[in-house]
Design brief:
The complex is a heterodimer of chains A (about 475) and B (about 500).
Chain A: H1 5-22, H2 27-52, E1 55-58, E2 69-72, H3 74-97, H4 101-123, H5 127-145, H6 151-182, H7 187-192, H8 197-214, H9 223-229, H10 232-256, H11 262-285, H12 289-309, H13 320-348, H14 364-378, H15 384-398, H16 402-426, H17 447-458, H18 463-470
Antiparallel strand pairs in A: 1-2
Helix pairs in contact in A: 1-2, 1-4, 2-3, 2-4, 3-4, 3-10, 3-13, 3-17, 3-18, 4-5, 4-10, 5-6, 5-10, 6-8, 6-9, 8-10, 9-10, 9-12, 10-12, 10-13, 11-12, 11-16, 12-13, 12-16, 13-14, 13-15, 13-17, 14-16, 14-17, 15-16
Chain B: H1 4-9, E1 12-13, H2 19-36, H3 42-68, E2 71-72, E3 74-80, E4 83-88, H4 91-114, H5 121-140, H6 144-162, H7 168-199, H8 211-216, H9 218-235, H10 244-247, H11 253-261, H12 264-280, H13 282-287, H14 291-310, H15 315-335, H16 339-370, H17 381-384, H18 386-400, H19 406-420, H20 425-450, H21 467-485, H22 493-505
Helix pairs in contact in B: 2-3, 2-5, 3-4, 4-5, 4-11, 4-16, 4-21, 5-6, 6-7, 6-12, 7-9, 9-12, 11-16, 12-15, 14-15, 14-20, 15-16, 16-18, 16-19, 16-21, 16-22, 18-20, 18-21, 19-20, 19-21
Protein name (chain B): Monovalent cation/H+ antiporter subunit D family protein
InterPro entries (chain B): CPA3_Na-H_Antiporter_D, ND/Mrp_TM, Proton_antipo_N
Keywords (chain B): Cell membrane, Membrane, Transmembrane, Transmembrane helix
């Protein structure tokens, strides 16, 4: 094995997963160490990218199209870093949230396997490799979904598995088409290929497969139940990180194989708008806190697709930044929100939104965390979510796409409406029967979600450095 | 008068360039500490509150002196390519932060007395502190982008204060408040984006940044003005966007006081000022034909607010409608596009704050001490609570515009400005408005001082009003007397106002 940060980001979690499975008693320690080592490798990689721009590594010395190579540029390192940082904090949260021995036994191997798959996605340079990685992710993600062991979680997990398998199958068919046409599967090959009907069909298959995996409306049917019924750390990983892998692939693919005409781009944006509005309405109607949070993920995915669509025929040369910022912002904020929702549910004993203000127990810090995460998800300044939304609207306005501006504003108002359903309850006390204690619910377990939520707000102030970092190595301008 | 030419020509960098940031951070960093303090640590909380508030007054005074000596403060860093988070301390900012710093200190004293033993004090003072931080940010924002950030923070920080009582009524008021202000914030976001896309620059610069755009695309500039002023008009309670204000008076008295005097409505009025003077430039705005409609809207608001105030029996509601009316004096003075009227507008920003905070704190004392919440219960209250009622009366007479009180000074300049701008109707409007003010304030004073107390008073919330509650309104009432009586003294609000106006109007 070469000693290289990229291979390390793949092998550290992979070996961690195997070891954690073999030695369940040490699973927690092994898991934390593996995540920390992965994080260290990402920092190492980030330094390399800062110094040299994009870095490429041919595994085993074989260059593509024969061999497999790994590549890291600013965007992929940003995704890796988000995954590692959110993953670390969710892991810390999981230390407290998962007390059941069976859950701990399986959580760590599954989560590390998931991390391997996601890191693989962010470093891959060919579409077959991507297919393998999304299968690894799907396997681990379904496992995490059913971890809580409830009947609802099992049913949701089964549905998730069907959707996932179908999505992967469609993607694989697309990969096959590409191979038949070009005889190669690496990105460089895709870029140089002549556009043809068969390639467009292949792209269409892959896009539908990815839309299913990332839960783009109307293929989102599996997501709310799956994310709402998992245990809190698993939900945080699934919502914050997993759906981003398919989004990332989508972003890369459509750069290397541009969508043939603007009608399709608009169609994708329209589906995004459908997600924003339908998801918003469902979030307004949701009775349980975690279900509301899950619907908000559907909304945010839709928003990211709108950011993609406003690129129009010009391509992603500029607009990908808005999408990337929204992806990063959602990853951090949603992980914080699911962990906070889990804490609230643990403390209060249920997560029925209507009944939360009747409880005499108020997990103050978790509620505060939830509110901070909501600020970023609504897109209020100065959060990273705000910066993402600003970039999206700025681009749409400059290009004269007023409809995307309008949809984004409607989405914002809807998100205010559904989050304030929850937040107003936090501040309401007249329905409480029992006497209130003070500052209930301070716990060490609140530290991880609070850190995430504060980061979601604070990273907005660092948007300029983040933007210049993700542009390193020209993710959307040069050959991979 | 402050020497303008030296102030502008001898611009020097400060030796403490981060002073504006420190002023912002005093209350911003106090907030998390206040949140974290346990509920029972009342003394520590009070000490921290007062300490930070006093420190802020001192820092603001220092900043004001430095700025009057021509020192320029400019703290900025890039948040997006070309788009900066920027704090500046221009004379207009100083005017507004002085108001907020001083009134914050006074309201803090009042709140400590008001919330004695009440629930959720940690939360209250935390958000209170955030609210003041937002006001300071609004005052010192160096561009519209930064202004937007703090404008939204202000909404978020005031919402928990409005619903502090946690009752169903408070929550309903809070919901309406949130709908209005967040929708306004969203429109402001749209306007800021529009400005950024059109002009490529959101800086507040005397004379404006839109000249090139106006030359090229007049209609777009006009639309932008409507969007921006409409967005800010929500918080400034311009008719027909004012409906949230009378409903939000369900908040505790210190919150209402702050909301009406410095925080929310003033943020809106101040924003309109920045937009007209420093985004468009007064000449550009006038050339676009937009100042006259704005003045007309302000005039309608002034009359409408006063007319509605007359019919309110609830004291706080009457005061709230009076705010709707009075705050639009500021907008009127801006829209008249005359330097003299501008002096009146800026002076009124301060004077209205002092008068209204006095009245809300006094009204809070009446409710707490005697259980009096309605005008019809005010009979004979003057003898029962002389200090509070004296303060209230002074502020009410000032509102009506009795010389030489504060309200008279601003009205005088507004009327003169109206004549200066060739709009004689302003004089009639101001006379009419003063008459209406008299119609809704004098009966309150008459009942309080000249009628015998009735026995219908509801039960008071507390046995007696302590000094923590009694002193603040008396202090602010004295300030109302002083800023009116000594309007021409150096460093009086009026003097500082002239300094500001000279900058806004002498730019060309």
């Amino acid at each position: 094995m070469q000693s290289d940060p990229m291979t390390l980001t793949l092998f550290a979690p992979l070996f961690g997963a195997i070891l954690a499975f073999l030695f369940p008693r040490a699973a927690r320690a092994l898991g934390l160490v593996a995540v920390l080592v992965t994080g260290g490798a990402v920092v190492w990689l980030a330094r390399a990218v800062l110094a040299e721009g994009a870095v490429t590594l041919a595994l085993g010395g074989w260059a593509p199209p024969l061999g497999i190579s790994l590549r890291a540029d600013g965007l992929s390192v940003a995704m890796l870093a988000m995954t590692a940082a959110v993953g670390l904090l969710v892991s810390l949260g999981a230390l407290d949230a998962l007390r059941d021995a069976r859950q701990t036994r399986y959580f760590w191997p599954l989560w590390l396997l998931l991390l391997t798959g996601m890191n693989g996605v962010y470093l891959s340079t060919d579409i077959f490799n991507l297919y393998v990685m999304i299968e690894v992710i799907a396997l681990a993600a379904v496992g995490l979904t059913v971890l809580s062991g409830t009947r609802a979680a099992l049913r949701a997990g089964l549905e998730y598995m069907y959707a996932s398998i179908l999505g992967a199958l469609l993607f694989l068919m697309g990969v096959g088409f590409v191979y038949l046409q070009l005889g190669r599967l690496d990105f460089a090959g895709l870029i140089t290929a002549e556009p043809s009907g068969a390639l467009s069909a292949a792209l269409a298959l892959m896009v539908v497969g990815l839309a299913l995996k990332t839960a783009l409306f109307p293929l989102h049917f599996w997501l709310p139940a799956a994310h709402a019924n998992a245990t809190a750390p698993a939900s945080a990983l699934l919502s914050g990180l997993v759906v981003k892998a398919a989004l990332y692939i989508f972003l890369r693919l459509t750069t290397y194989m541009p969508l043939p005409d603007e009608v399709l781009v608009t169609l994708i944006g329209t589906l995004g708008a459908g997600a924003v509005i339908w998801g918003g309405i469902q979030a307004l109607r949701a009775e349980r806190l975690k279900l509301l949070v899950a619907w908000s993920t559907v909304v945010q995915i839709g928003l990211i697709f709108i950011a993609f669509a406003r690129a129009g025929q010009v391509g992603l040369t500029e607009s990908w930044k808005a999408a990337a910022l929204l992806i990063l912002a959602h990853g951090v904020a949603k992980a914080a929100m699911f962990l906070a929702a889990g804490r609230i549910k643990d403390e209060v004993g249920h997560d029925t939104i209507r009944e939360l203000d009747k409880s005499a127990i108020r997990p103050t810090l978790a509620q505060f965390t939830f509110a901070l995460a909501a600020i970023s998800l609504i897109g209020l300044p100065p959060s990273l979510g705000f910066i993402g939304k600003w970039s999206l609207m700025e681009g749409a306005m400059a290009a004269g796409y007023w409809h995307w501006v309008g949809v984004t504003m409607i989405g914002t108002l809807l998100s205010v409406a559904y989050f304030s359903r929850v937040l107003a309850g936090f501040l309401r006390f007249d329905r409480v029967r029992a006497p209130l204690g003070e500052h209930q619910g301070w716990a060490l377990a609140d530290v991880a979600p609070l850190t995430l939520a504060v980061s979601a707000i604070g990273l907005g102030l660092l948007a300029a450095p983040i933007l210049s970092f993700i542009e390193l190595g020209y993710p959307f301008g040069a050959m991979p | 008068m402050i020497d303008l030419s030296t102030a502008l020509n001898t611009a020097v960098r400060s030796d403490v360039p981060l002073l504006p940031l420190f002023i912002l951070l005093t209350s911003l960093l106090a907030a998390p500490v206040l949140f974290a303090l346990p509920e029972r640590a009342a003394r520590l909380r009070t000490g921290l509150n007062l300490g930070v508030a006093a420190m802020k007054v001192a820092l603001v005074a220092w900043l004001g002196i430095k700025v009057s000596q021509g020192v320029i403060y400019d703290v900025s860093f890039a948040m997006l390519p070309g788009l900066e988070f920027k704090l500046q301390a221009d004379p207009l900012a100083i005017l507004f932060i002085s108001l907020s710093a001083i009134l914050w200190l006074i309201t803090t004293v009042y709140s400590v007395g008001y919330l004695e033993r009440g629930p959720h004090r940690a939360r209250f003072f935390g958000f209170f502190s955030l609210c003041v931080a937002a006001t300071v940010g609004i005052a010192m924002a160096g561009n519209l982008f930064t202004f937007l950030i703090f404008y939204e923070l202000l909404t978020l920080a005031t919402y928990p204060l409005v619903i502090h009582r946690g009752s169903a009524e408070a929550l309903r008021a809070g919901r309406i408040y949130l709908i209005y202000t967040l929708a306004g914030g969203l429109v402001l976001l749209l306007g800021t984006l529009g400005l950024w896309v059109l002009a490529g620059n959101t800086d507040f610069t005397p004379g404006g940044v839109l000249d090139a755009v106006v030359a090229e695309n007049r209609a777009a500039a006009q639309l932008l003005f409507v969007v921006l002023v409409g967005a800010l008009g929500v918080k400034a309670a311009l008719v027909p966007l004012h409906a949230w204000l009378p409903i939000a008076m369900v908040a505790p008295a210190p919150v209402s006081a702050l909301l009406h005097a410095v925080a929310v409505v003033k943020a809106g009025a101040f924003g309109i000022m920045r937009v007209v003077y420093e985004v468009f430039g007064i000449d550009t705005a006038q050339a676009l034909g937009l100042t006259a409609p704005l003045a007309a809207l302000a005039a309608v608001t002034i009359l409408y607010g006063s007319l509605r105030a007359i019919t309110q029996d609830d004291i706080k509601k009457r005061l709230a409608y009076s705010t709707v009316s009075q705050v639009s004096y500021i907008t009127l003075g801006v829209a008249l596009a005359s330097p003299v009227a501008a002096v009146g507008a800026l002076a009124h920003l301060i004077h209205q704050g002092l008068m209204k905070i006095t009245m809300f704190m006094a009204a809070g004392n009446l409710a707490e001490g005697m259980g009096v919440k309605r005008v019809s219960q005010m009979d004979g209250i003057g003898r029962a609570m002389p200090g509070t009622m004296l303060a209230f009366s002074a502020a009410a007479l000032a509102m009506i515009g009795l010389p030489p009180l504060a309200g008279f000074v601003s009205k005088w300049y507004l009327a003169q400005g109206g004549l200066d701008a060739g709009a004689a109707w302003v004089v009639a409007l101001l006379l009419g408005s003063s008459l209406l003010n008299a119609v809704y304030f004098l009966p309150m004073l008459y009942r309080a001082w000249f009628r015998d107390g009735s026995e219908t008073c509801a039960t008071p919330a507390r046995p007696r009003i302590g000094w923590w509650l009694a002193a603040p309104p008396i202090t602010t009432a004295l300030m109302v007397l002083v800023v009116g009586g000594f309007a021409n003294a150096p460093f009086s609000p009026l003097e500082w106002t002239r300094f500001v106006v000279a900058i806004e109007y002498l730019q060309e």
